[in-house]
Amino acid sequence: MMSTMGNPRNVFWHECAVGKAERQKLIDQQGCVVWITGLSGSGKSTLACSLNRELHSRGKLSYVLDGDNVRHGLNKNLGFSPEDRTENIRRVGEVAKLFADAGFICIASLISPYRKDRDACRAMLSDRNFIEAMLLSVFMNMPLEVCEGRDSKGLYKLARAGKIKGFTGIDDPYEPPMNCEIKIEQKNGVCPTPYDMALQVVAYLDQTNSKILTLKYAWSIGSNERRCSAPPRVGDATKEAGSTTGGVTANGGGVASEEVQQTEVVKRPKEAMRGATMMEGCDGRRQRQLLKL
Ligand SMILES: Nc1ncnc2c1ncn2[C@@H]1O[C@H](COP(=O)(O)OS(=O)(=O)O)[C@@H](OP(=O)(O)O)[C@H]1O
Ligand SMILES: Nc1ncnc2c1ncn2[C@@H]1O[C@H](COP(=O)(O)OP(=O)(O)O)[C@@H](O)[C@H]1O
C-alpha cells in the first residue's frame, strides 16, 4: 500500500508514457504561453485574435484564452474583487500551462491588473517539471484616455457614472509590468494595426526560440543570415523606445506608480533589407533564459 505520509490530500502525480517532447516533435513546434495584459479596451483581444491568425497561417497551433470568454464557463463563478481576479488569473495560468505542455502556443489575454498575480503565473510556468514551458509577457501600453475613448462595451461610461464599482483604471488599480518582454504602444500618437501588433510578437517568438516558428515555414538559417519564403512585414521601427508609464488609474485607486522598463525594437543591420527585427525585452535576464530553451 502506498504511504500517504507527507501528502495529507492523498493526491499523486501520474506520469503518462507520451511526454511533452514527443508531442512537440509530432506537431513540430514548442509549447509556450503568450500572456497579454492591459486595460480594458487596450486591444488585448484584438491582438490575441490577430496573433492567432498569423500563427495559424504559419502552420502553428495556437489557442486563445480570453478573459471575457473564460468568464463565461470555467470562471463564471468569479467576479472582480481582488480575490476573484487573483483566482481568475491563477486558473487561466494553470490552463495555459496545460496548453503549453500539450505543445500549443497558448495566448492568454486578460487584464491581469495585479503584478503579484502575473508574477505568480510566471513562476508557475518556470516550474522545473515544465522546464520547456515559457511565458512571454506582452504589455498593451495604451493610455487610459485611448481605452476609455474606445469604450467598445460602454463599461467606462458605466464606471464613470458609478454604476460599476471596482473598474480597472477608474477605481481599481492597474499595475504596469516591470518585466514584460514586449510592449505594444502608440507611435507618434498612432496605434499599430492589429497585423503589426501580431508581427511584433511573431518576430519576438522567432528571435527567442527558433523551434516555435521556423520549422514548417521554410526558413533557412545560415551562418549569419536567415531567409524566408514569405518574410514577415514587421514595422519599420529602427529604435522604438517605450515611454515611461506610471500606474494607470483615473482617481489614484492605490496603484503603485513605478517606472516601466523599456522594450526596444532594434532593426538588425544585416536583416534591415529584409524587414526582420530583433526585439530586446525589458528584462534581459529573462530573455536570456528563453534563449536557452
Ligand atoms: N470591474 C471590472 N473591471 C475590469 N473589467 C471588467 C469589470 N467588470 C466587467 N469587466 C469586463 O471583464 C473583462 C475583464 O476580464 P478579465 O478576466 O480579463 O479581468 S481580470 O484579469 O480578472 O482583472 C473586461 O474585458 P476587456 O474589455 O476585454 O478587458 C470587461 O469587459
Ligand atoms: N490596434 C488597434 N487599432 C485600432 N483599434 C483597435 C486596435 N486594437 C483594438 N482596437 C479597437 O479597440 C476596441 C477594444 O479592443 P479589444 O481588443 O476588445 O480590447 P480589450 O480586449 O483589451 O478590451 C475594439 O473596438 C477594437 O476594434
What are the defining features of this structure?
293 residues, alpha/beta, Rossmann fold, 5-stranded parallel β-sheet, two-stranded antiparallel sheet, 10 helices, 33% helix, globular, disordered C terminus, binds 3'-phosphate-adenosine-5'-phosphate sulfate, binds adenosine-5'-diphosphate
Short summary:
This protein has helices at 20-27, 44-57, 67-70, 82-102, 115-124, 144-150, 155-160, 194-208, 210-213, 284-292; strands at residues 32-37, 62-66, 105-109, 135-140, 182-184, 220-221, 226-227, 264-266, 278-280.
Structural notes for this entry:
Residues 30-184 form the APS kinase domain. It catalyses: adenosine 5'-phosphosulfate + ATP = 3'-phosphoadenylyl sulfate + ADP + H(+). Residues 228-266 are annotated as: Disordered. The protein is of the alpha/beta class and 293 residues long. It has one domain (26-292): P-loop containing nucleotide triphosphate hydrolases (Rossmann fold). It is 33% helix and 12% strand. The chain contains 10 helices and 9 strands. A 5-stranded parallel sheet has the order 2-3-1-4-5, sandwiched between helices. It has a two-stranded antiparallel sheet with strand order 6-7. The protein has a two-stranded antiparallel ribbon with strand order 8-9. Strand 6 (220-221) and strand 7 form a beta hairpin. Helix 2 crosses helix 8. The chain binds 3'-phosphate-adenosine-5'-phosphate sulfate (PPS) and adenosine-5'-diphosphate.
